[in-house]
Amino acid sequence: MEILLELWNEVIGFLGITQALELLQAGDYTVFTTYDGVASLIYPIIPFLLILEFIVGLVYKKPQIKVYRVNFLIYIFNRFVGRFIAIAMVTFCIGVFSKYAILQTSYTWYWLIYAYIVWELAHFVYHYLGHKVRLFWCLHSTHHAPEEMNLSVTHAHFFLEAPYADTIRTSICIVLGVKPELLFTVMFIDGTYGAFIHIGENMIRDARFGFLNKIMLTPSHHRVHHARNPLYMDTNFCNLLNIWDRVFGTYQEEQKTVQIEYGITRQMDSGNFWDVYFGEIVALAKDVFKAPGIVNKFLYIVMPPGWSHTGEHKTAKVARNHYLSTQQES
């Protein structure tokens, strides 16, 4: 009976309706006009869209069942292994870095805008490092392994990625003066929209969103980010505001002439949980073991994926520059 109850709680938790049910049971419906009440109504949107997206895929286009299956296994695994680690790291970083804040903010609309711009910078830093440092790529690659884009990809993360990401993002935000209450509001908005941008073609075929594509990051931009095409690799690191991609030269729009190919460049079995989850770690371990000298072993850990001690680099930057140069010549 306890197992069934725990299973039920997991289902309710996944659907994001736990808080809403608790508020309904309290009988005070005016609470839904508060921040907590509004948040409780927003939480279930992404799980609902995920289920709807899967059903639509079954009706109109057979989805890659292996993508849903592997991502579901990742979600279950992460629930058991790393449930509270990320929350603990956020709390720890707030306590450590609050005294080093360079300015004081308050919970107002203009400081909320400031907080979101700072959060996007922090997110850019974490996300950029996740692609440019091979050790961090081992944690992030699980998210890029699916060869189809859908909302289940939101849950495809190595369990240590959230603690590493939140350590970087929280530290930067707190040092730049973002108060914890502002930070948690931004994290809620960002988490909800960050899940939505993974919506697949079965639900929204053209996800450029018209003029919005120029002023914010749309699902189209994030589909580009998940592509393994040379033109698209290592671009669009932001989450909602693409300001920092434009500042640092990593902005890339989806081209109608370049069809997106999802996944990573390493040969892998995207339907195999172990290869998706641990494959890049195994590949890194093999490169480090074979590398001559301690310096090269260390460089394999900190240099971008595709770096080689022989000089025959196959990094995303090399692939993209080669593609752009061939396009200019043709």
UniProtKB/TrEMBL annotation:
Transmembrane intervals: 41-60, 72-97, 109-129
Keyword terms, alphabetized: Lipid metabolism, Membrane, Oxidoreductase, Transmembrane, Transmembrane helix
Domain Fatty acid hydroxylase: 113-250
GO MF annotations in UniProt: glyceryl-ether monooxygenase activity; iron ion binding
Pfam families for this protein: FA_hydroxylase (PF04116)
Protein name in UniProt: Sterol desaturase/sphingolipid hydroxylase, fatty acid hydroxylase superfamily
Cellular component terms (Gene Ontology): endomembrane system; membrane
Subcellular location: Endomembrane system
Topology class, membrane: Multi-pass membrane protein
GO biological process: one example: membrane lipid metabolic process
